[in-house]
Amino acid sequence: MKGILAVNHFLNTEKYNELHCALVSSAKKEGIELKIKTNLELSVQKADCDFVLFWDKDINLARRLESEGIPVFNSASSIEKCDDKARTYIELLGNVPQPETIIAPKTYFKADFSEFAERAVERLGLPVVFKECFGSFGEQVFLCSSVDEVLEHITEKPFILQKFIKESCGHDKRLEVVGGTVVAAMERTNAHDFRSNITNGGIMKPCVPTENEINLAVKACNILGLHFGGVDILHGDFVCEVNSNAHIINIMKCTDIDIAALIFNEIKQNLQKGNV
Fold first, then answer.
1. Which three-class secondary structure string do you get for the chain?
2. What pLDDT is attached to residue 52?
3. pLDDT tens track for 211-236
């Protein structure tokens, strides 16, 4: 079986390269010849493969590959729903508990959001969490203690404001779901930052999730159409974020579970069944 690992041409750092090499190595053990191709390379050539493991967020490329009849994991639709934090919130709304969230109105240029920020803060309280809709590793996520702080972070980029769950400050759980099953879980804590991300100085340890946390993670992934994904759950069983192509190296090191092998088995099973 031949596959392509689609990655971003412009994210060429040690962190990403380590992940890509781990995926290629794991695929080989599962009898899959996996070649790394960047989104730049794939934009100007056809993909000669049985499937694409799409570890990027270039939605239009993923859609093009699907239109050419190539199975893509995760699908373009699922990646799109997870990549946009506002879209994720809407898809999960009414289905799983989430921190109360207000989506900023659309603007086509940098605008005066004073009235919106004041009304949102009045509803959500302070401090309030500011998140740009597109970003990873806790980047462009800020805890704002005033309306003025909210306004300082606003650009022309779309964003959301979210109620701060103070009981979960610097703490969450990451549950990795593959094929509708939670296969690994870790607890992340950060004593110096409200964000628990390892990139921001958080520390990790394996954990046993509760039955409710497991159900929430699986349900979130099912709603978003994910074959595999990482679900972040806050104290109080609030789903914070869902990652369609999470950086699985940390949780694999933390738990000693080869999640990559499980992902490739999931892909093979779905190809055999024609579930693409």
1. CEEEEEECCCCCCHHHHHHHHHHHHHHHHCCCEEEEEEHHHHHCCCCCCCEEEECCCCHHHHHHHHHCCCCEECCHHHHHHHHCHHHHHHHHCCCCCCCCEEECCCCCCCCCCHHHHHHHHHHHCCCEEEEECCCCCCCCEEEECCHHHHHHHCCCCCEEEEECCHHHCCEEEEEEEECCEEEEEEEEECCCCCCCCHHHCCEEEECCCCHHHHHHHHHHHHHHCCCEEEEEEECCCEEEEEECCCCCHHHHHHHCCCHHHHHHHHHHHHHHHCCC
2. 98
3. 999 999 999 999 999 999 999 999 99
Record the pTM.
Answer: 0.96
Query: What pairs with residue 3 in β-bridges?
Result: 34, 51
In contact, 177 and 221? CB cutoff 8 Å: yes
Question: Are 240 and 232 in contact, with CB atoms under 8 Å apart?
Answer: yes
pLDDT in tens, 178-197: 999 999 999 999 999 999 98
Question: Are the CB atoms for 263 and 229 separated by under 8 Å?
Answer: no
Instruction: Classify residue 16 as exposed, middle or buried by CB count within 10 Å of its CB (0-12, 13-18, 19+).
Output: middle
Separation between Cα atoms, residue 24 and residue 11, nearest integer Å? 17
Rg over CA atoms, the chain: 19
Alpha-carbon distances of 216 from 27, 93, 123, 239, 249, rounded to whole Å = 29, 13, 26, 7, 23
Name the residue with tokens 């369609």: 244
Tokens of 161: 């404001």
pLDDT band, very low/low/confident/very high, at 135 (cuts 50, 70, 90): confident
